[in-house]
Amino acid sequence: MNLTAAAPAITAAFLGSLVEAVEALTIVLAVATVRGWRPASLGAAAGLALLALVVLIFGPLLDRVPLHLLQLTIGVLLLLFGMRWLRKAILRAAGMIPLHDEAQAFAGGTSTLREQARRHEARLEWLATMTSFKAVVLEGLEVVFIVIAVGAGHGLLVPAGLGALAACLLVVAVGFAVHRPLTRVPENTLKFAVGVMLSAFGVFWTGEGLGVPWPGEDLAIVGLAALFLFVALVGVALTRGTEEALS
Amino acid sequence: MSTLMALLRDVAGLFVDDGSLALAILGVVVIAAIVAALVPTMPLIAGATLLLGCVGVLLANVMRARRS
Fold first, then answer.
1. How many Å apart are CA A70 and CA A167, to the nearest integer?
2. DSSP letter at A215?
3. CB B29: neighbour CB atoms within 10 A?
């Protein structure tokens, strides 16, 4: 295994999965607080089962897709996914949109469920289970996508998967130990870093798919990430500067 | 059925949030692909087009978001 290529893949998978696991855990804990652990754990388990099914069905198909097509498809999806994260992180860092607050998300989740309880008491068990299920599926799909995106191109699926698994286990262990959402995780900083790395991977894989021989081969990812970081910081400074000038 | 549709909408939302950003990124990829096809002997030009295009699209989108 080439450590130069593996390190960014493992780091991106770990950090990206950390953010997604925190978001999923917040919603599952909100469901558990309002309706108890039965619907929360049932929905989470069903979500994990669906994710496992998706990986088992589509995982082996990855080997059958021509490499250039796989690189191009993953690269474009990574660009869409990573630059969306980076855009939001820039706007949050510049103070243009509010920071993602897990405590607020937890409070919002519980109050929504309580409101639903007042209106649909009979269906609440189902709604609570579905809320937990949907959170695990959506955040889990992001984790699966990140692992495939950073690992599939150069046979790094296993190390990237282990990085993601470590992050999920860490969040679940800490979350269950403290029994409340992990509000002290610097989520926007993590999203900023992961957005930079995913955008760099996106440009790298899309380029590889188009037949671009990047100088330095895998090392080019580090250079691309440095450029995206620089541009993102410039974006924050420009946006923040203009905001301050306007106020 | 409506739950499934809502789930699919959310999955699509993972990749497309700001539609103009997504369209601009796809446009950059198409232009880079055209450059790669037109100048096959110098593929780095396509790489530079892709990289600078993505970086430019990101900055332009952030600045546009500020103005709106």
1. 26
2. T
3. 25
- How far, in Å, CA of A191 to CA of A199, rounded? 12
| Most confident stretch, A4-8, A83-87, A170-174 | A83-87
Cα–Cα–Cα angle for A167, A168, A171, rounded to 5 degrees = 85
Written as one letter, the residue type at A95 is G
Interface of B with A (CB under 8 A): 3, 6-7, 10-11, 14-18, 21-22, 25-26, 29, 32-33, 36, 40, 43-44, 46-47, 50-51, 54-55, 57-59, 61-63, 65-66
How much is the ipTM here?
0.85
Contact B31, B56 (CB under 8 A): no
Beta-carbon count within 10 A of A66 CB? 9
DSSP string, A148-170: HHHHTTTT-HHHHHHHHHHHHHH
Are A5 and A156 contacting, i.e. CB atoms less than 8 angstroms apart? yes
What are the chain A neighbours of B57 within 8 Å (beta carbons)?
Answer: 83
Q: Length of chain A, please?
A: 247
First to last CA, chain B: 36
Mean pLDDT of chain A: 80
Q: Which residues contact A61 (CB under 8 A, 6 or more apart)?
A: none
In 3D space, the residue among B24, B51, B50 whose CA is nearest the CA of residue B35 turns out to be: B50
DSSP string, A80-101: HHHHHHHHHHHHHHTTSSPPP-
Least confident of A19-28, A41-50, A176-185, B3-12: A176-185
> What is the pLDDT confidence band of residue A66, given thresholds at 50, 70 and 90?
confident
Question: A47 near A132, Cβ under 8 Å?
Answer: yes
Looking at residue A120, the DSSP 8-state letter turns out to be -
